[in-house]
Amino acid sequence: MEYPKGNRLAGRIMRLKKFFGIFLSLIMVFPFAACDVFKEGGKTSVLWVSQTMETVSDGDETQITFVASDNKFGGYAESGVSGMSDEDTFLSVDLKATAEIPVKVEFVYGSVGDQTVVYSQINIGTEYENYAFRTGNVLSNKSLNKIRLFPSYNAAGGYGILYVKNLTYNDYYLNKFFEVKTVASQDAGENSGNGSGQGDQSGNQGGSGEQQPVVPVTATYLYEKYSQYFKIGMCAGDSDYRNYGDIDGHYNSFTCENEMKLYTIGNNEGQYDYSKADNMLRYMINRGKKIRGHALIWYNGAPQWLTGCRDKQQLLNKIDTYCYNVVKHFKDSFGDSVYCWDVVNEAINDGNGTYRDCFYGVAGIDFIKTAFRAARRADPNAKLFYNDYNMDDRTKRNAVINMLRELINDGVPIDGVGMQAHYAIQGGGVNYETSINNVESAINAFENLAEETGHPLEIHITELDIRNHGNNNAALAQKYKELFEVFRRHSNSITCVTTWGICDAYSWLDNSQGYSGKAYPFLFDEGHNKKAAFDAVFNF
Ligand code: XIL
Fold first, then answer.
1. Where does 370-528 show beta strands of DSSP type E?
2. Is 255 a pocket residue for ligand 1 (Cβ < 6 Å)?
3. Separation of 508 CA from ligand 1 center, angstroms?
4. pLDDT in tens, 456-515
5. Which of 57, 247, 294, 389 could pair with 420 as two cysteines, CB 3.0-4.6 Å apart?
6. Which stretch of 43-47, 123-127, 226-230, 250-254 has the lowest confidence by average pLDDT?
7. Among candidates 129, 145, 294, which has minimal Cα distance to 228?
8. For residue 295, is the peptide bond before it cis, meaning its omega torsion is within 30 degrees of 0?
9. What's the rounded Cα separation, in Å, for the pair 183 and 75?
10. β-strand pairing of 231-236 with 116-124
11. 80 DSSP assignment
């Protein structure tokens, strides 16, 4: 909407009113996300203003136009924060820009005269992505009081728009929106300081004649380090998901180990038990994570009302109803936070690569098509995946590729393929080792299929763990290093890498599948300490 030049303030107020109107209606649509705001009495306000930046709030979105040139910061937007605890606290915001640009995020701890500034750099894409920053527990003796966003002067032409929405902060117990203050832009040449007179100028952002430092990169968390590559995911179950508050900040994607499966939600036909999943999702979304939905149709553990059905049309109807209702539930409850689904899991046999008999024996490949179509009807935004293991085995992989080709050619809504990635290194009774070359061959093969069909396919590494019964830290680190080198090389197609667990305190591999003892498969040890494998993945 355009406002007369002489009446910009009125225009801003109008925009703000409009923003609040839509904001309030959003709260009604998503009561879960917002009701705590009012219970807690948290302030709500989102307004970004800068001397050199034009700011428009439109609906739930704020658009910050920035102008920048070499050696200058065109400006920044600042939010004052109050009432944040020192405990595990997260700032969550959805960002995109008109071009892919780096944005410096600055966290100012302490008050005037006693400030410490912690930097982080993220790379913003042209599609909305959620960025969650752990802000508590960084400096225990000072609390956070400002957050600033600096669009980079590296933007093409020095001009662009940064889009902001869903700016929230959450901690363990609270879910409050925070108040956003406005500040002046900062010009490195003149250093105009805080010309708006609101809030105080802090640390190395203030003072006169001071040259703005080049954006330092200090990623603290794994997901930050990988923000320009892919999401970093973890998995946990109902009994342990609250145990990892000290380390789960490294992850921005979460998978429920068993709680979104058919055998948890749909044991009885027509009755849906979402209780565990809903609690886990609420907790993890509050901690800044997006959710991988796993898994709708899986032969393993599937209840009798489905596996026992011998009539093709009846079976397809049951699959359709189940998939639609489950995806719809999560869509209605959590919006786009469930950003993808493993729609069908493990349809292909090991060895000869034939279809598993379950479901296929009665309905053929239609059981897969029906599941994907139902999921897409229920949530047009979620990315839909086929998920399987042993993709590094050529025979099995080729069978999966043939299946995917048939789905694509038939127009079935499928967006990606999940490689489970249950890998191993030798030692401690394990006498085989995953070949990195074979893993890369699988990735290449899926990329080639996308090219051949002209149908884009995302690859998710969905359940990465490395069986390591010898607890050989050095060998594990080496394997993780090589794997992540491959993953980074293919970050055009790989959009998420998830480990099937988080630390060695618990893994489904412990004492399983014929191996005794613990498997030590992760980046963190039993006491949640970083292992050499963490460093191998983090330092590159
Ligand atoms: C496993 C869980 O980790 C176990 O707790 C459960 O008993 C069985 O399932 N492939 C998958 C995952 O797609 O869902 C499986 O998870 C591991 C293999």
1. 383-388, 416-419, 422-424, 458-467, 494-499
2. no
3. 7
4. 999 999 999 999 999 999 999 999 999 999 999 999 999 999 999 999 999 999 999 999
5. 389
6. 43-47
7. 129
8. yes
9. 9
10. unpaired
11. E
- 265 exposure class (CB count in 10 Å sphere: 0-12, 13-18, 19+): buried
Half-sphere exposure of 387 (CA within 13 A, CB side): 26
The one-letter amino acid code at 180 reads V
Residues found in the chain? 540
Per-residue confidence (pLDDT) for residue 63, from 0 to 100: 76
Residue nearest to atom 9 of ligand 1 (CA): 258
Specify the ligand 1 atom closest to the Cα of 342.
13
CA–CA separation, 477 and 534 (whole Å): 7
Give distance in angstroms: CA of 389 to centre of ligand 1.
11
Closest CA to 435 of 425, 443, 427, 444: 425
64: its two tokens: 């910050």
3-state DSSP call for residue 458?
strand
Which residue's C-alpha comes closest to atom 5 of ligand 1? 508
Do residues 254 and 290 touch, judged by C-beta distance below 8 A?
A: yes
Ligand 1 atom 4 nearest Cα: 508
pTM higher than 0.70, yes or no?
no
Residue 373's pLDDT is: 98
Strand order of the sheet with strand 101-109?
77-80, 144-151, 101-109, 116-124
H or E segment at 463?
A: strand 458-467
Q: How far apart are CA 108 and CA 78, in angstroms?
A: 10
Is the C-beta atom of 420 inside 6 A of ligand 1?
yes
What pLDDT does 12 receive?
A: 33
Residue 175, helix vs strand vs coil = strand
Residues recognised as catalytic: 346, 463
What's residue 76's pLDDT? 58
More confident residue, 429 or 40: 429
454, with CB counted inside 10 A (0-12, 13-18, 19+), is exposed
Q: How far apart are CA 190 and CA 143, in angstroms?
A: 30
Taking the mean position of all CA atoms in its chain, how far away is CA 364?
34
Residues 6+ apart with CB under 8 A from 513: none
CB 112 within 8 A of CB 61: no
